[in-house]
Fold:
Amino acid sequence: MLYIKCPHCGMRSQNEFSYGGDATIKRPELGKEISDQDWDNFVYNRKSLRGKHWELWQHISGCRQWIKVERDTATHEIFKTLKANEEISL
Amino acid sequence: MQKYSFFSLVKNALSNHENWDLAWKDPTPKKEYEVVIIGGGGHGLATAYYLAKEHNITNVAIIEKGWIGGGNVGRNTTIIRSNYMHDDNGLFSEFGMDLWRRMSQDLNYNVMFSPRGIINLAHSDAQMNTYARRGNSMRLNGIDAVLLNREEVKEIIPMADFSENVRFPIYGGLMQPSAGTARHDAVAWGYARQADDMGVDIIQNCEVIGFDVSAGKINGVRTSRGDIKAKKIGLCVAGSTNILAEKLNMTLPIETHLLQACVSEPVKPVLDKVVTFGAGHFYISQSDKGEMVMGGDLDGYNSYAQRGNLPTLQHVLTEGIAMMPFLSKLKMLRTWGGIMDMSMDGSPIIDKTHIEGLYLNCGWCYGGFKATPASGWTFAHTIAQDRVHELNSGYSLNRFNTGHLLDEKGLGTKTWIS
Structure:
């Protein structure tokens, strides 16, 4: 069982959360002309790192906020959690 | 090589089975090979076998970080089927079914292929319609499919829950009678033994550290046991695909996820089919030892851990008990996890890459084991001829870019959508 510290609600069990994937992916700016490759990178291509990985989770059975979580994909250790609007410092 | 037969068994029994040949050797890596296959799982071993058998390319090495049979080929739930709707998936898998039917003879190794049939249960009228459509598509591609009504399903699997007041009543099901299971370890060992016999070097405990790429061309691979030159390199590393892609500066439409499976304590024969629950994601069969072999959803977050968490297991087994209530009486014998190369549309990739001489085989999601022979056969063709075969032309890497997705069930990385 993972325990995730929601920045809004505190430590909660994994059962309350739903996963949202890589948190470092940024949607291309609206109205900006982009290539198919840029779009491909945004929609499909993922690094899927082994080790520290910033990812999105939603506290779906709690405050329903999206949050950012830094977790190790090999050990499942969670290092840090941020609110959705807080920038990741890599 | 000693052929396995009744006579060789008797002969070796007389010498207390002390004089059998090694099934495969333990060679030191050479400086150069014509083809290097990275990954000694089912797909890698099958690729090497078909390179030697179909294309007479025997100057081949398989390099494997761990040991033969220690990865997903030894961790799956052994289901073999070709019950797909889309032509690309159906024709590819049915080609594989033919290879499965001949495999024990081909490899001179009993892979215990058991075509016992698979039933996908339907729990609504709409689902019955969908299954009728999929069944028709299958039959058009020459794959056997039978649509069963509730009574017919009850005949075959009376232990499922057919009571009136259930959340997901069984309306019927789609059966592929020729589907089944096989002994997964035997598949790996059988391919390894034959590939080794034809001259392929199987190099275990050899980890890839990096690649030698210059001017858009692959020249070799750097490993924990020294540099190995090769004109052609095939990547067949399933859950480690992203790790190697990073060393090649490639970003792929693949995420690495954790999938669990489990077996119960052995019980007397009760279930002679593979059955899947249609209102969730749960599948079950009974092994020859009597264990109920079960699996279902991904844990749902990126992971390289090769071990699972209990919430997903609880969720999956809840579905199992909803489908077959007697399962609640069984004790769990073992649970384990494997890491899956989940592609974004749920279908695999067998293709060339932008690097000359580098070939990619990945994205097998939940269905890698059954694809072992067809994947090896088509990947060997792709490597040997430097072009994709008709059978794997739909499994291209650039389909995500062009929009030609193969979204059979939409079961990619985003399990919450399904």
